[in-house]
Amino acid sequence: MIPSELVNERSKSTRDRVMQTLLVRQRCTINELAEAVDINPISVRHHITRLQADGLVDSEEERHGVGRPRRLYFLTENGREKFPTRYLRLTIRLLQQLKDSMPEPMVNKLFAQMAQAMAAEYEHELEGLSIEERLNLVTHLLGSEGFSVEWEQEGDRILIKEINCPYYFIGQNHPEVCSVDQTIISTVLSVPAEKIHCILNGDAFCTYVVPHQQMGEKPA
């Protein structure tokens, strides 16, 4: 019997090759992937299903002449980010140039405006939402930015915990980026969020506190 560890490693290797093929070719059918990776289409479909469940691959139908449309698969943004890039280095350089060219208050204001614009995309969904629904929307919005978020009620306050930080490496040199998630939370919940723990300070996770009874009220 083949050890389960070896089976898992082989499966991971095949999925990596599927993703690598999509990175190079951009869009492929199941049969095209099967030919490129050299496994049967049924196995490819199995790996694609797992990758879609993980949010790394998506698909859409494309009409190709006469007959039934074909389904093409492609990497999502999260899928593309699995591959090494120079985006991080470029981002850090751009932020440093920004800070060298602008006064600190203007830089902080720019980050706040960016976060407010992100939250504003969901403004039409906030009307009539319960506290729990707003918290779930915060979880969804931050999740789309790469955060893993949990929240819990503790007495008369809500604790919002970010288990990871997608801005960690940038934040080490540019902690201003931390204002993005804090502003999103405050905007969606309509109450200032106070940070009491921060991964950049060596804490296990970032934690924000908001008063339960004030949530959903418009700041004065």
Helix percentage: 40-55%
Q: Residue ranges: pLDDT <50 for 5 or more in a row?
A: 1-10
What's the number of domains?
A: 2
Instruction: Fill in the CATH topology of the largest domain.
Output: Muramoyl-pentapeptide Carboxypeptidase, domain 2
Looking at CATH, the homologous superfamily of the largest domain is: Trafficking protein particle complex subunit 3
User: How many strand units?
Assistant: 6
Fraction of residues in β-strands: 15-25%
Radius of gyration: 22 Å
Sequence of strands across the biggest β-sheet: 3-4-6-5
Biggest sheet descriptor: 4 strands, antiparallel
Report how far apart the termini are: 67 Å
Structural class: alpha+beta
| CATH architecture group name of the largest domain | 2-Layer Sandwich
Order of helices and strands: HHHEEHHHHEEHHEE
Q: Provide the CATH top-level class of the largest domain.
A: Alpha Beta
Q: Give average pLDDT, whole number.
A: 84
Topology summary:
Elements: H1 4-25, H2 30-37, H3 41-53, E1 57-62, E2 70-75, H4 77-80, H5 87-101, H6 104-120, H7 131-144, E3 149-154, E4 157-162, H8 168-171, H9 179-189, E5 194-197, E6 206-211
Antiparallel strand pairs: 1-2, 3-4, 4-6, 5-6
Helix pairs in contact: 1-3, 2-3, 6-9, 7-9
